[in-house]
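Before the break, one more example. Copy the sequence into your notebook; we will annotate it together after we see the structure.
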Amino acid sequence: MKLSIVVPVLDEAERIRKALAPLQPLRAAGHELLVVDGGSRDGTFEAAHPLADRVLPAPRGRAVQMNVGASVATGDVLLFLHADCRLPPSADVAIAGALARGRAWGRFDVTLDGDSHALPIVASCMNARSAATGICTGDQAMFVERAMFDAMGGFPALPLMEDIAISRRLKRFAGPPARLHERVVASGRRWDADGAWRTILSMWALRWAYWRGAKVRDLARRYYGVEPRDPPTLQVFAKAPVPGRVKTRLARTIGAEAAASAYCALAERTLATATAARRAGVVGAIELWLDPESDPAAIVPWRDRFGVTIETQAGDDLGARMRNALRSSITRGVPALLVGTDVPGYDVAYLARAAAALERHDAVIGPAEDGGYVLVGLARDVDVFGGVPWSTPEVMAATRARLAAAGASHVEMPPLWDVDTHDDYVRWRDRRPAMATS
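Here is what the structure looks like once it is written out:
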């Protein structure tokens, strides 16, 4: 059994080393440690790097962060651990034992560490409630087989109550959780800061409202004191996969039919990645923007299979079409990410990094290895495309200059490559088996 331990964090610089240090023996034993940062401003991201296998940026929100971590995990069991919780010794052995007994998921009992004399009572009540209801909370270090987690669609993309929501799903389809009596030590700082009984009453009021069907967005606003952000729209620029109309440069060497087949495979991979990102909560609506000469009827199967809406590009050149598409979402108050269809390197983590960048910056750009870019995102309407020399190596430099002239802050992503030439095609073809298992 290989564990992938996923730790969502936000502004934990003072505690992150103390939180990750006890997990190093598990890394030494072959398990994996993934830290997913939701936009920390205090150096948490940098401090976590030496003590984790990967540190990933993601939009703020525990559900989204944990889903992003799970998307890159290589273990066959996922363990979700809050940064202020410490696992018991030999936690991996305890989990393996539970799985060997036929349980697909479970959690630990909890002890609360803090100053309040009420904390032992609170912990006992938490453990008893979970045992009686089969509902787990984040403080209890929930674990689940990877295959079961994927079958459930991951954590529901909720700004609050994601642990209760996934517990309901898992309980329905996999039975009650394994209860491990080894103790996770969770911080009691929330109870110490706000008062034990006040915190208990507040949490029960929120749970009661949730059980009665209150909108989770409203509950999150009450709990965090801020309005939850909408995830960005993901816009995919595409053409109908008609031989002779797509990948024309590539068609010169492999033929129009083969080029169209390659285009179709790449587009479907992009749309599959997009739907996985939507399920994880990284993006919201997915829009497939067709070039004006494409027949929308040709891609209805993609619409139905991937749950996307079809829009038509409008504008005199590529820059105008891109700006009009992005503006259509921004005018609704929702930021947008725009991608093409022919980039094998797109994955949920890459899109999460771009979405997280838009939470702080006006724009995000994903450079292409050939000098252009494979992703562009805007949080506000900025004219970054005017005068850009398309299809030249100067595209990225010109876009940077436009952003600077507009006074727009931006982030650049790691570069990716797209499939345009025969060499690109061979590179993609040779790595496709590895992609299928990623």
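The first strand starts at residue 3 and ends at 9. The domain at 3-194 is CATH 3.90.550.10 (Spore Coat Polysaccharide Biosynthesis Protein SpsA; Chain A). Try to locate both features in your own notes.
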